[in-house]
């Protein structure tokens, strides 16, 4: 079953655990959730107010 999840984060959230940094994904593109894998870089250049779909590392604007 497919579902659309709206993620508005543009980068990871840093959480300190025992003096070490852990990075939590906020963009929804991570291949190892909830941890950031750097895949948010695919979202660079998104335009405000537009909706995008990501599949196999490729971005497509969703219209209508």
Explain what this protein looks like in three dimensions:
The protein is an all-beta fold and 64 residues long. The protein has one domain. Helices cover 0% and strands 31% of the residues. It contains no helices and 4 strands. The strands form 2 sheets. A two-stranded antiparallel ribbon has the order 1-2. β1 and β2 form a beta hairpin. The protein starts with 12 loop residues before the first strand and ends with a strand. The mean pLDDT is 91.
List keywords for this structure.
single chain, 64 residues, mainly beta, two-stranded antiparallel sheet, 4 strands, 0% helix
Overview in brief:
This protein has 64 residues and is mainly β. The protein is built from no helices and four strands.
């Amino acid at each position: 079953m497919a579902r659309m999840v709206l993620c508005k984060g543009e980068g990871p959230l840093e959480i300190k655990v025992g003096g070490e940094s852990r990075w939590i994904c906020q963009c929804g593109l991570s291949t190892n959730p909830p941890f950031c894998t750097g895949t948010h870089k695919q979202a660079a250049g998104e335009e405000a107010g537009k909706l995008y779909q990501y599949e196999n590392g490729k971005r497509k604007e969703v219209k209508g």
